[in-house]
Amino acid sequence: MERVPALDEPLKKSLGPATAKVMAEALDLHTVGDLLHHYPRRYAERGELTTLADLPLDEHVTVVAQVADARVHTFNGAKGRGQRLEVTITDGSGRLQLVFFGKGVHKPHHDLLPGTRAMFAGKVSLFNRRLQLAHPAYELLRGDDGESPDTVDVWAGAQIPIYPATTKLESWKIAKAVDAVLPSAVDAVDPLPDALREGRGLAELPDALRLIHRPRTKADIAVARERLKWDEAFVLQVALARRRHADTQLPAAARLPVPGGILDAFDAKLPFTLTDGQRKVSREIFDDLATEHPMHRLLQGEVGSGKTMVALRAMLAVVDSGGQAAMLAPTEVLAQQHHRSVTEMMGELAEGGMLGGADRATKVVLLTGSMGAAARRQALLDLVTGEAGLVIGTHALIEDKVRFHDLGLVVVDEQHRFGVEQRDALRGKGKQPPHLLVMTATPIPRTVAMTVFGDLETSVLDQLPAGRSPIATHVVPAADKPHFLARAWERVREEVGKGHQAYVVCPRIGDEEDQKKKAKASAEDEAEKRPPLAVLDVAEKLGAGPLAGLRIAVLHGRMHPDDKDDVMRRFAAGELDVLVATTVIEVGVNVPNATAMVIMDADRFGVSQLHQLRGRVGRGSAPGLCLLVSEMPEASPARQRLAAVAATLDGFELSRIDLEQRREGDVLGQAQSGVRSSLRVLTVIDDEEVIAAAREEATALVLADPDLTAHPGLRTALDALLDKDREEYLEKG
């Protein structure tokens, strides 16, 4: 029987079934190799205490600190008299309270004497507006006084590794498990070609694994991290380079605009000139469409930068070449809106086959799930016969019964709203693979585009068309300064008084489903972590209070599609003054007369989402106003995030802030699928240069050896990276 390679050995052989079970369930670690690649999150230095400032609420943390004070309090509870041990720990810059109850107080009371240094692990919670750890696990860091327990050897080095841990598995238990398997690191298969490793002066893989887990100095950590970053960047870029190489082998029909065709006729009737950015990006797209392998391009641009105009011109070029183009929108509201705006912009050019249609006209059809049977049948017929050059629709476009005459281009609006299978299904509807253009307004920095969209070329629209108004953004600290919130509602009334309209955005709906969840929260939770503000509650309070007399309506995702459309139509027609909504308005809602937006509990939204929401105002000639309401204290990271949004309208700048605050795994779409991120030491923002260099090396290697025949170690690493979920990640776009 063939011997299992050391790093593929199941953990239960090395650690025993009980520990292996917890490792698998809590951290998704199954083999020796998995554990060796579970790197420390950071390191604490012996003799130096780690900072307690900025501990994240509701997260599991490990801290190294010194006991400043420990007291037992007696109290009368529901079950008679009880005891509570309160321990204050400090790191010289901040303090944190630990609390133990009942019978659990005796051992810590004996162990945690003032002056004792230890590692503490637990979930950070809030009690009486102060951070605390309740019943934390702890490991004493003695060893300076000769009375060291066995475990002190583990911490004898200058650097104490702090591992990503969970409630069931503290950092020091992971460290002991790593010690058990670390000798196997000598058998690690090296994915980097020798020439690359030597040329860049990188450590060998077994050395890097040993140094990342058991460094003696900070220099050891730096050597290990540099090597392991290259592993991650290079293997990922080889995977992407192979995908790009395979795509260049696929056939696609070149789609060229025809002089005097529908595109020229459309350009001639535009009432404005395209921006330089729109012209430049259009050229990039037309060059791609002219090639005989499928275009994969990401069109990235600010809200309102004119992406739809660029996409429409590309679609018309494809119609000129005899093909069809499809635009996939994430919601019915957005699909209907795109259909309306495209037919309006095209005028008689969208009336192919109709009385009064222009000579070079085509038909523009809409296809959504809620269409009537007759309209749907006609739309399907227009697609299969080729009568319709352009189709705009939702997921309904993907269904099996939808057939195209000759699909040449797929435009996906808001790429983050679609799954891989959905985009693939639409791409599979062409006789040959159609060209693909993916649009997004949520800005992603160039560096992320290089990894996540490694097989998408990127075009950037960073210029706003003439006539778009600036948006002023301010943070409204509702808890510290309640009169600021009162002033916010006055500003809304003033905007309505000028004949404009306003949005009020809330994180929650507030209907029966919400109420069930709310009922489970305890009274203490209620005080410390009140549920996010809800649309239905806020609308009622505003209607009876500060916005009494204004025409207010609500909009949220659990309304019937017809009711949603009706509310949006009335708001767009100016029949409503204020729309109280959830984030359903985040994409595609275009009401130029809406000038003000108040976002309640703004700290509950991400940076990109706030930027996206804010883009709904200031779409006409009047300036926009966005007010971010928050009850978070001024020094909190949440408030700093809001201040960053208020300080700039540059989405590219904001996306960098957003990425720095998110785990890279989320960026790679791994967190959603429950798969561990393939990026453990590589950080997309900080390691831009490594990623770019790895891309160059990978592209050259794949060009010379597409099947990696000469690189068995790299093939092994690639197989490990590309499980089913990661294959899908690679196909994003």
How would you name the oligomeric state of the polypeptide chains in this document? single chain
For the terminal residues, how far apart are their CA atoms?
A: 43 Å
Beta-strand residue percentage: 15-25%
Name the overall outline: globular
* Count of alpha/pi helices: 28
Query: What is the spatial order of strands in the main beta sheet?
Result: 11-12-10-13-14-9-15
Give start-end ranges of low-pLDDT stretches.
144-157, 520-528, 663-675
Mean pLDDT: 82
Coarse structural class: alpha/beta
User: Helical content, roughly?
Assistant: 25-40%
Give the C-alpha Rg.
29 Å
Sheet with the most strands, sense and barrel status: 7 strands, parallel
In total, the number of strands is 21
In short:
The protein has 733 residues and is of the alpha/beta class. Helix content is 39%, strand content 19%.
List the helices and strands and how they pair.
Elements: H1 11-15, H2 17-27, H3 32-36, E1 42-45, E2 60-77, E3 80-90, E4 95-101, H4 106-111, E5 117-127, E6 130-134, E7 137-140, E8 159-162, H5 171-181, H6 194-199, H7 205-213, H8 218-249, H9 262-269, H10 276-289, E9 296-301, H11 307-320, E10 324-328, H12 332-346, E11 363-367, H13 373-385, E12 388-393, E13 407-413, H14 420-427, E14 435-440, H15 446-452, E15 457-461, E16 471-477, H16 482-497, E17 501-505, H17 512-519, H18 523-528, H19 535-544, E18 552-555, H20 561-572, E19 578-581, E20 594-599, H21 607-614, E21 624-630, H22 637-647, H23 651-661, H24 664-667, H25 670-673, H26 688-704, H27 712-721, H28 724-730
Parallel strand pairs: 4-6, 9-14, 9-15, 10-12, 10-13, 11-12, 13-14, 16-21, 17-19, 17-20, 18-19, 20-21
Antiparallel strand pairs: 1-8, 2-3, 2-5, 3-4, 5-6, 5-7
